[in-house]
Amino acid sequence: MILEVLKFPDARLRETAEPILESELDDSLRALVQSMIETMYDEPGIGLAATQIGVAKRLVVMDVNYDEDQGRDPRVLINPEIVLAEGKIISPEEGCLSVPDFNADVRRSQRVVVRARDLDWKEVEYEGTELEAFCYQHEVDHLDGVLFIDHISKLKRDLYIRRRKKQLRREQEEDASSLPTY
Fold this sequence. Notes:
By secondary structure, the chain is an alpha+beta fold. The chain is built from three helices and five strands; from the N terminus they run αβββββαα. Helix content is about 30%, strand content about 30%. The mean pLDDT is about 95.
């Protein structure tokens, strides 16, 4: 099932997600994970945090290796935490499914190690560099209510916010004008 991805400035994107307990690992959580994976590919994106679909739980799906020829390789991270971050580098033209029509360079750690649980509740640890490392950081930020635009200059962020508000006003006006009159 394809889920609705929340868009900035939805306040739910600023919530801090709660950890998932082992007792919550059931069919409904597995169904949520499957829907998140389908949604991530449908958008299309390389990562999706549960907070982006209005679920304040520490859950991430991602696939930075997707290739039409080699297929899909989704990864599920329950309660992910970055346990090592080193080196600084610019993540070029970072974007987000929840921040439409905007990309920006973001300063991120070049290499990270992430510890999480998988769907069998086994502890897993992944090391990533560059794109994979940027994705881990981006998605874990979502779980803490942080958007990538929080990592750019105030000037660029304010410009985006003004443009987004104007875009939303225009959409509301178009919606209102398409209503039937009686």
